[in-house]
Protein backbone atom coordinates (compact mmCIF):
# COMPACT_ATOMS: atom_id res chain seq x y z
CA UNK A 1 0.00 0.00 0.00
CA UNK A 2 1.39 3.36 -1.07
CA UNK A 3 0.73 6.71 0.59
CA UNK A 4 1.40 10.19 -0.76
CA UNK A 5 4.34 10.41 1.65
CA UNK A 6 5.90 7.20 0.36
CA UNK A 7 5.29 8.20 -3.27
CA UNK A 8 6.96 11.56 -2.59
CA UNK A 9 10.13 9.66 -1.75
CA UNK A 10 10.00 7.88 -5.12
CA UNK A 11 8.58 10.56 -7.44
CA UNK A 12 8.71 13.93 -5.65
CA UNK A 13 7.84 16.16 -8.62
CA UNK A 14 4.87 14.15 -9.88
CA UNK A 15 3.59 13.65 -6.34
CA UNK A 16 3.69 17.38 -5.62
CA UNK A 17 1.80 18.26 -8.80
CA UNK A 18 -0.91 15.66 -8.25
CA UNK A 19 -1.35 16.56 -4.58
CA UNK A 20 -1.75 20.22 -5.52
CA UNK A 21 -4.37 19.37 -8.14
CA UNK A 22 -6.36 17.45 -5.52
CA UNK A 23 -6.01 20.19 -2.88
CA UNK A 24 -7.17 22.89 -5.30
CA UNK A 25 -9.86 20.70 -6.86
CA UNK A 26 -8.29 21.14 -10.27
CA UNK A 27 -8.14 17.52 -11.33
CA UNK A 28 -7.52 17.09 -15.04
CA UNK A 29 -9.80 14.86 -17.10
CA UNK A 30 -6.79 12.97 -18.47
CA UNK A 31 -3.20 12.31 -17.37
CA UNK A 32 -0.30 10.76 -19.24
CA UNK A 33 2.11 9.02 -16.85
CA UNK A 34 5.29 8.35 -18.79
CA UNK A 35 8.44 6.71 -17.51
CA UNK A 36 10.28 3.40 -17.46
CA UNK A 37 8.72 0.31 -15.94
CA UNK A 38 9.09 0.06 -12.19
CA UNK A 39 9.00 3.81 -11.51
CA UNK A 40 5.62 3.77 -9.74
CA UNK A 41 3.13 4.67 -12.47
CA UNK A 42 0.52 2.07 -11.54
CA UNK A 43 1.01 2.64 -7.80
CA UNK A 44 0.49 6.38 -8.35
CA UNK A 45 -2.62 5.74 -10.45
CA UNK A 46 -4.26 3.61 -7.78
CA UNK A 47 -3.35 6.07 -5.03
CA UNK A 48 -4.82 8.91 -7.09
CA UNK A 49 -7.99 6.85 -7.64
CA UNK A 50 -8.29 6.30 -3.89
CA UNK A 51 -8.04 10.03 -3.23
CA UNK A 52 -10.63 10.62 -5.96
CA UNK A 53 -13.18 8.24 -4.41
CA UNK A 54 -12.41 8.21 -0.68
CA UNK A 55 -15.04 10.05 1.38
CA UNK A 56 -12.87 9.99 4.51
CA UNK A 57 -9.57 11.32 3.22
CA UNK A 58 -7.46 13.57 5.42
CA UNK A 59 -6.43 16.46 3.18
CA UNK A 60 -5.25 14.56 0.10
CA UNK A 61 -4.45 11.29 1.90
CA UNK A 62 -7.16 8.63 1.51
CA UNK A 63 -8.06 6.64 4.60
CA UNK A 64 -6.92 3.32 3.02
CA UNK A 65 -9.51 1.43 5.06
CA UNK A 66 -12.96 2.37 3.75
CA UNK A 67 -14.96 0.31 1.26
CA UNK A 68 -13.80 2.38 -1.72
CA UNK A 69 -10.12 2.27 -0.76
CA UNK A 70 -10.16 -1.48 -0.09
CA UNK A 71 -11.87 -2.29 -3.37
CA UNK A 72 -9.46 -0.11 -5.36
CA UNK A 73 -6.53 -1.80 -3.61
CA UNK A 74 -7.91 -5.26 -4.46
CA UNK A 75 -8.88 -4.33 -8.03
CA UNK A 76 -12.60 -4.78 -7.46
CA UNK A 77 -14.01 -1.25 -7.54
CA UNK A 78 -16.96 -1.08 -9.96
CA UNK A 79 -16.10 2.43 -11.17
CA UNK A 80 -12.33 1.98 -11.56
CA UNK A 81 -11.46 0.25 -14.84
CA UNK A 82 -7.96 -0.96 -15.78
CA UNK A 83 -7.30 -1.66 -19.45
CA UNK A 84 -4.32 -3.90 -20.25
CA UNK A 85 -2.99 -5.29 -23.53
CA UNK A 86 -4.63 -8.43 -24.83
CA UNK A 87 -1.65 -10.26 -26.23
CA UNK A 88 0.74 -7.71 -27.71
CA UNK A 89 -1.64 -4.76 -28.01
CA UNK A 90 -4.67 -2.90 -26.73
CA UNK A 91 -7.33 -3.42 -29.36
CA UNK A 92 -10.19 -1.34 -30.69
CA UNK A 93 -12.75 -3.70 -29.14
CA UNK A 94 -11.37 -3.02 -25.66
CA UNK A 95 -11.77 0.72 -26.13
CA UNK A 96 -15.27 0.23 -27.60
CA UNK A 97 -16.20 -1.67 -24.45
CA UNK A 98 -14.73 1.17 -22.41
CA UNK A 99 -16.77 3.72 -24.39
CA UNK A 100 -19.86 1.71 -23.62
CA UNK A 101 -19.02 1.96 -19.93
CA UNK A 102 -18.78 5.74 -20.33
CA UNK A 103 -22.49 5.88 -21.17
CA UNK A 104 -23.52 4.24 -17.91
CA UNK A 105 -24.06 6.10 -14.68
CA UNK A 106 -21.57 5.07 -12.02
CA UNK A 107 -22.84 2.19 -9.94
CA UNK A 108 -22.33 4.04 -6.66
CA UNK A 109 -21.59 7.60 -7.82
CA UNK A 110 -21.14 9.50 -11.06
CA UNK A 111 -17.37 9.33 -10.73
CA UNK A 112 -15.30 7.03 -12.92
CA UNK A 113 -11.58 6.36 -13.31
CA UNK A 114 -9.98 4.61 -16.27
CA UNK A 115 -6.38 3.42 -16.22
CA UNK A 116 -4.87 2.38 -19.56
CA UNK A 117 -1.71 0.37 -18.88
CA UNK A 118 1.00 0.14 -21.57
CA UNK A 119 -0.87 2.76 -23.58
CA UNK A 120 1.86 2.74 -26.24
CA UNK A 121 0.59 -0.69 -27.34
CA UNK A 122 -2.76 0.69 -28.53
CA UNK A 123 -3.46 -0.06 -32.17
CA UNK A 124 -4.19 2.90 -34.45
CA UNK A 125 -7.91 2.11 -34.35
CA UNK A 126 -7.85 1.82 -30.56
CA UNK A 127 -6.03 5.15 -30.28
CA UNK A 128 -8.58 6.86 -32.49
CA UNK A 129 -11.42 5.41 -30.44
CA UNK A 130 -9.86 6.59 -27.19
CA UNK A 131 -9.44 10.04 -28.67
CA UNK A 132 -13.23 10.34 -28.80
CA UNK A 133 -13.37 10.21 -25.01
CA UNK A 134 -10.54 12.67 -24.59
CA UNK A 135 -12.26 15.13 -26.95
CA UNK A 136 -15.46 15.05 -24.87
CA UNK A 137 -14.23 15.17 -21.26
CA UNK A 138 -16.50 14.80 -18.25
CA UNK A 139 -15.57 16.56 -15.05
CA UNK A 140 -16.38 13.44 -13.05
CA UNK A 141 -14.33 11.10 -15.21
CA UNK A 142 -10.55 10.79 -15.02
CA UNK A 143 -8.38 8.85 -17.46
CA UNK A 144 -4.79 7.88 -16.69
CA UNK A 145 -2.64 6.59 -19.56
CA UNK A 146 0.50 4.75 -18.47
CA UNK A 147 3.37 4.38 -20.92
CA UNK A 148 7.08 3.77 -21.19
CA UNK A 149 7.20 5.67 -24.46
CA UNK A 150 4.96 8.72 -24.58
CA UNK A 151 6.31 9.75 -27.97
CA UNK A 152 4.72 6.68 -29.57
CA UNK A 153 1.21 7.96 -28.76
CA UNK A 154 -0.77 10.10 -31.16
CA UNK A 155 0.05 13.79 -30.80
CA UNK A 156 -3.69 14.47 -30.51
CA UNK A 157 -3.86 12.18 -27.47
CA UNK A 158 -0.77 13.70 -25.85
CA UNK A 159 -2.14 17.22 -26.35
CA UNK A 160 -5.30 16.37 -24.43
CA UNK A 161 -3.48 14.93 -21.42
CA UNK A 162 -1.56 16.51 -18.60
CA UNK A 163 1.85 14.89 -19.00
CA UNK A 164 3.58 13.61 -15.87
CA UNK A 165 7.21 12.52 -16.32
CA UNK A 166 8.24 9.72 -13.95
CA UNK A 167 11.97 9.83 -13.27
CA UNK A 168 14.11 6.67 -12.97
CA UNK A 169 14.54 5.53 -9.38
CA UNK A 170 17.95 6.33 -7.95
CA UNK A 171 20.11 3.22 -7.48
CA UNK A 172 19.74 3.15 -3.69
CA UNK A 173 15.92 3.31 -3.88
CA UNK A 174 15.84 0.68 -6.59
CA UNK A 175 18.18 -1.59 -4.67
CA UNK A 176 15.93 -1.37 -1.62
CA UNK A 177 12.88 -2.08 -3.77
CA UNK A 178 14.55 -5.23 -5.09
CA UNK A 179 15.52 -6.31 -1.57
CA UNK A 180 11.87 -5.82 -0.57
CA UNK A 181 11.00 -8.20 -3.43
CA UNK A 182 13.18 -10.86 -1.80
CA UNK A 183 16.35 -10.45 -3.88
CA UNK A 184 19.61 -10.74 -1.88
CA UNK A 185 21.45 -7.45 -1.40
CA UNK A 186 24.46 -8.54 -3.48
CA UNK A 187 22.22 -9.32 -6.46
CA UNK A 188 20.03 -6.27 -5.85
CA UNK A 189 23.03 -3.94 -6.05
CA UNK A 190 24.13 -5.50 -9.32
CA UNK A 191 20.65 -5.38 -10.86
CA UNK A 192 20.15 -1.74 -9.91
CA UNK A 193 23.40 -0.91 -11.70
CA UNK A 194 22.23 -2.67 -14.87
CA UNK A 195 18.56 -1.76 -15.17
CA UNK A 196 15.87 0.46 -13.72
CA UNK A 197 13.17 -1.97 -14.81
CA UNK A 198 11.79 -3.95 -11.87
CA UNK A 199 10.49 -6.86 -13.94
CA UNK A 200 13.73 -7.13 -15.90
CA UNK A 201 15.79 -7.02 -12.70
CA UNK A 202 13.77 -9.82 -11.10
CA UNK A 203 14.00 -11.87 -14.29
CA UNK A 204 17.78 -11.40 -14.52
CA UNK A 205 18.25 -12.33 -10.87
CA UNK A 206 16.69 -15.73 -11.63
CA UNK A 207 18.38 -16.22 -15.00
CA UNK A 208 20.99 -19.02 -15.16
CA UNK A 209 22.61 -17.46 -18.25
CA UNK A 210 23.11 -14.19 -16.37
CA UNK A 211 24.49 -16.02 -13.32
CA UNK A 212 27.09 -17.67 -15.53
CA UNK A 213 27.87 -14.34 -17.23
CA UNK A 214 28.57 -12.86 -13.81
CA UNK A 215 30.95 -15.74 -12.99
CA UNK A 216 32.74 -15.39 -16.32
CA UNK A 217 33.50 -11.74 -15.62
CA UNK A 218 35.10 -12.66 -12.29
CA UNK A 219 37.01 -15.48 -13.96
CA UNK A 220 38.28 -13.13 -16.67
CA UNK A 221 39.53 -10.72 -14.01
CA UNK A 222 41.29 -13.59 -12.23
CA UNK A 223 42.97 -14.65 -15.48
CA UNK A 224 44.02 -11.07 -16.31
CA UNK A 225 45.43 -10.63 -12.83
CA UNK A 226 47.05 -14.00 -12.16
CA UNK A 227 47.59 -15.66 -15.56
CA UNK A 228 47.62 -12.90 -18.20
CA UNK A 229 49.26 -15.14 -20.80
CA UNK A 230 46.13 -17.32 -20.79
CA UNK A 231 43.70 -14.44 -21.37
CA UNK A 232 43.27 -14.96 -25.12
CA UNK A 233 42.69 -18.69 -24.63
CA UNK A 234 40.06 -17.90 -22.00
CA UNK A 235 38.28 -15.50 -24.37
CA UNK A 236 38.12 -18.07 -27.17
CA UNK A 237 37.31 -21.14 -25.07
CA UNK A 238 34.92 -19.68 -22.50
CA UNK A 239 33.92 -16.03 -23.01
CA UNK A 240 32.85 -16.10 -26.68
CA UNK A 241 31.05 -19.44 -26.30
CA UNK A 242 28.74 -17.80 -23.73
CA UNK A 243 28.42 -14.30 -25.19
CA UNK A 244 27.41 -15.49 -28.64
CA UNK A 245 25.86 -12.36 -30.16
CA UNK A 246 26.24 -8.60 -29.95
CA UNK A 247 23.50 -8.07 -27.37
CA UNK A 248 24.81 -10.74 -25.01
CA UNK A 249 28.40 -9.55 -25.46
CA UNK A 250 27.25 -6.02 -24.68
CA UNK A 251 25.87 -7.35 -21.39
CA UNK A 252 29.24 -8.96 -20.68
CA UNK A 253 30.97 -5.64 -21.31
CA UNK A 254 28.47 -3.89 -19.01
CA UNK A 255 29.37 -6.30 -16.23
CA UNK A 256 33.08 -5.82 -16.91
CA UNK A 257 32.60 -2.05 -16.68
CA UNK A 258 30.93 -2.45 -13.31
CA UNK A 259 33.94 -4.41 -12.05
CA UNK A 260 36.38 -1.68 -13.06
CA UNK A 261 34.08 0.98 -11.58
CA UNK A 262 34.16 -1.00 -8.35
CA UNK A 263 37.95 -1.03 -8.55
CA UNK A 264 37.94 2.77 -8.75
CA UNK A 265 35.56 2.91 -5.74
CA UNK A 266 37.89 0.55 -3.87
CA UNK A 267 40.81 2.87 -4.49
CA UNK A 268 38.96 5.99 -3.33
CA UNK A 269 37.19 4.35 -0.38
CA UNK A 270 33.58 4.59 -1.63
CA UNK A 271 32.55 1.22 -0.26
CA UNK A 272 28.84 2.02 -0.35
CA UNK A 273 28.97 2.33 -4.16
CA UNK A 274 30.59 -1.07 -4.76
CA UNK A 275 28.37 -3.47 -6.71
CA UNK A 276 30.35 -6.73 -6.46
CA UNK A 277 30.14 -6.76 -2.67
CA UNK A 278 30.73 -10.53 -2.50
CA UNK A 279 34.06 -10.05 -4.27
CA UNK A 280 35.65 -7.55 -1.87
CA UNK A 281 38.74 -9.71 -1.32
CA UNK A 282 39.30 -9.99 -5.06
CA UNK A 283 38.75 -6.24 -5.45
CA UNK A 284 41.26 -5.52 -2.72
CA UNK A 285 43.79 -7.83 -4.36
CA UNK A 286 43.16 -6.12 -7.69
CA UNK A 287 43.67 -2.71 -6.12
CA UNK A 288 47.17 -3.78 -5.02
CA UNK A 289 48.05 -4.91 -8.55
CA UNK A 290 46.24 -2.28 -10.65
CA UNK A 291 46.23 1.46 -10.03
CA UNK A 292 43.22 3.74 -10.07
CA UNK A 293 44.46 5.15 -13.38
CA UNK A 294 44.66 1.64 -14.84
CA UNK A 295 41.01 1.09 -13.86
CA UNK A 296 39.97 4.39 -15.43
CA UNK A 297 41.84 3.55 -18.63
CA UNK A 298 40.14 0.15 -18.71
CA UNK A 299 36.74 1.84 -18.47
CA UNK A 300 37.63 4.05 -21.43
CA UNK A 301 38.70 0.99 -23.45
CA UNK A 302 35.50 -0.91 -22.59
CA UNK A 303 33.36 2.03 -23.73
CA UNK A 304 35.28 2.09 -26.99
CA UNK A 305 34.75 -1.68 -27.34
CA UNK A 306 31.00 -1.20 -26.90
CA UNK A 307 31.03 1.45 -29.62
CA UNK A 308 32.95 -0.86 -32.00
CA UNK A 309 30.58 -3.72 -31.21
CA UNK A 310 27.58 -1.77 -32.50
CA UNK A 311 29.59 -0.43 -35.44
CA UNK A 312 29.63 -4.03 -36.71
CA UNK A 313 33.22 -4.83 -35.81
CA UNK A 314 33.48 -8.61 -35.38
CA UNK A 315 32.73 -9.47 -31.71
CA UNK A 316 35.80 -11.69 -31.28
CA UNK A 317 38.04 -8.97 -32.71
CA UNK A 318 36.45 -6.45 -30.33
CA UNK A 319 37.38 -8.62 -27.34
CA UNK A 320 40.89 -9.35 -28.59
CA UNK A 321 41.59 -5.64 -29.07
CA UNK A 322 40.13 -4.87 -25.65
CA UNK A 323 42.39 -7.40 -23.94
CA UNK A 324 45.45 -5.93 -25.65
CA UNK A 325 44.49 -2.46 -24.48
CA UNK A 326 43.77 -3.52 -20.89
CA UNK A 327 47.05 -5.47 -20.65
CA UNK A 328 49.29 -2.63 -21.82
From TrEMBL:
Its EC number is 2.7.7.7. GO terms for molecular function: 3'-5' exonuclease activity; DNA-directed DNA polymerase activity. Gene3D superfamilies: P-loop containing nucleotide triphosphate hydrolases. Pfam families: DNA_pol3_delta2. Transmembrane segments: none annotated. It comes from the Bacteria. GO terms for biological process: DNA-templated DNA replication. Keywords: Nucleotidyltransferase, Transferase. NCBIfam families: holB, PRK08058.1. This is DNA polymerase III subunit delta. It comes from Pontibacillus marinus BH030004 = DSM 16465. The lineage of its organism: Bacteria, Bacillati, Bacillota, Bacilli, Bacillales.
Amino acid sequence: MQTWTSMADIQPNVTKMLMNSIKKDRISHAYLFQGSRGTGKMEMSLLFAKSFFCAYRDGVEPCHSCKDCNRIESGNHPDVHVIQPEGQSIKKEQILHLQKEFTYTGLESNQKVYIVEDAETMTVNASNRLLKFLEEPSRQTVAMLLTENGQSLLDTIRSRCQVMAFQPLNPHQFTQKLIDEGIPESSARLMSAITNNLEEAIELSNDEWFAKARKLVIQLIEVLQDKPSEAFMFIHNHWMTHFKDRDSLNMGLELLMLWYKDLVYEHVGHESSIVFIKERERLQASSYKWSKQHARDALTHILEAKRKLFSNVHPTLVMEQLLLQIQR
